[in-house]
Amino acid sequence: MKFYGVRHGRITGVFDNWRACREQIFQFPGAEYKSFSTWEEAQQFVRTGETGSPNPSSPSTNTTTSSNIDVWVDGACFPQTDGSMHIGWGVLITKGGQEVFRDKGNDIPSEAHGHRNVAGEIWAILKALEWCQTNQATDITIHFDYQGLESWVTGAWKTKLPFTQYYAQAVRETGIKIQWEKVKAHSGIPENEIADTLAKEGAHLGSGKKPPL
């Protein structure tokens, strides 16, 4: 279970689910928040702005940390009558509840097409990590809906195929600290819906077709 400390938002305090936290920080100027594994750590962050063990000699800080960066990813797959597939990826990145980046595409290696929409989700994460490296983001939260995206990286699932092996290694080699947040697909979370729409649009780029609603 994760706990979310909101130090600066509509309501400050500790929340035990992402949806409640999001309501306090989404589109709130200068929002400050961070997720923790214990209530005590989250409460300490709310009180002092510090993380880890309390240290009275350390001054509190009001700066927004890089962990305020949230990455939302999704993939889409549309089988065609000729046996081919249109696969797309979509990514949305917010910082402190404010959108800072979005992108979409279908430039997924052909050898990965057997993974269908999961290939799009994997590619979305890799694209997002490229952005993070360019922008010196070292601590992020990735919101996803397929468990393998986290479990392949952490080693909870074995990477038996070349594409998932490549994915897991590429993520680990970035050196970026990732907090994984599994969300239910099509659950009405605006950022997740945007990533879904971007993935559908990406799948049909260049095809002349409009993505389904």
Order of helices and strands: EEHEHEEEHEHHEH
Number of DSSP-assigned strands = 8
If you compute it from the alpha carbons, what radius of gyration comes out, rounded to the nearest whole angstrom?
A: 18 Å
Strand order of the largest sheet: 6-5-4-7-8
Instruction: Determine the number of helices (DSSP H or I, runs of at least 4 residues).
Output: 6
Walkthrough of the structure:
With 213 residues, the protein is α/β, with parallel strands linked by helices. It has six helices and eight strands, in the order E-E-H-E-H-E-E-E-H-E-H-H-E-H. Strand 5 and strand 6 form a beta hairpin. It starts with a strand and ends in a 10-residue tail after the last helix. About 7% of the residues have low confidence.
Give the SSE layout.
Layout: E1 3-8, E2 13-15, H1 18-25, E3 32-36, H2 39-48, E4 69-79, E5 85-95, E6 98-105, H3 117-134, E7 139-144, H4 148-154, H5 162-173, E8 177-182, H6 190-203
Helix pairs in contact: 3-5, 4-5
